[in-house]
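Worked example 3. Consider a protein that binds zinc ion.
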Amino acid sequence: MSAETMQTVPICCDRCGERSTVDLAPDWALVLRDGQIIAIVCPGCITEEEHLVLEINDATSELDRVTPEEGFVMKPKDGDES
Ligand SMILES: [Zn+2]
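Given these inputs, the predicted complex is written out as structure tokens:
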């Protein structure tokens, strides 16, 4: 994996307004509700509660792709289709 394969998508913390890009901010958190991103927060701003919610969401949704046009796109993680 070279850095050139990483998407350079700007993101902005919903709490403190800190700006970064996806490739530079692997620790940033996507706060999800029903598979929809409701907030993007930097590691310094995420709360305990959100951290918990994140772990739950992590079991049901996953990041599908990140593009400059669409931003973060989530997809349900439903394991095997049956
Ligand atoms: Zn922040």
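Take a moment to read the result before moving on. The mean pLDDT is 80. Residues 13, 15-16, 18, 41-42, 44-45 surround zinc ion (CB under 6 Å).
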